[in-house]
Amino acid sequence: MNYISQTPGQFEAEMERRREAEDKRIAAAIKTQQQRDAAFKADQDQRQHEAGAARLEAHHEATRARILAAGGTAADFEKAWPELKQAYLIDAASSGQEERIYQQMRARGGTRW
Q: Can you tell me the distance from the alpha carbon of 91 to that of 102, in angstroms, rounded to the nearest whole number?
């Protein structure tokens, strides 16, 4: 059926159907983009968390080595580590390098240390 042979009511109904179909298409496209954005952000957050955890692990090992090299014991290190770790995280967060990592670690209850 072409537009010329339609009644005004039929034409308006057809236009409404087309508008609804276009609205659905746009809504689906927006939802797809939001899902992609969320997946990208989650992946980016995970990579940042892993990088921060790796830096913390490296700091942990370097600090342990320094304490042991200075004549300290493993027990000395274990006793001092919570405070040293907190200082490292505060410094990293205040410098802006690891703010998100620090917040995620706090939200998750810390790490294995």
A: 10
Long-range contacts, 40-48 (Cβ 8 Å, 24+): 45/100, 45/104, 48/100, 48/101
CB-based contacts of 64: which residues, under 8 Å, 6+ apart? 74, 77, 81
Neighbouring CB atoms inside 10 A of 63's CB total 16
CA distance 81 to 28: 51
State pTM to two decimals: 0.58
Q: Quick check: 1 pLDDT over 70?
A: no
What digits encode the pLDDT tens for the residues 58-73?
Answer: 999 999 999 999 999 9
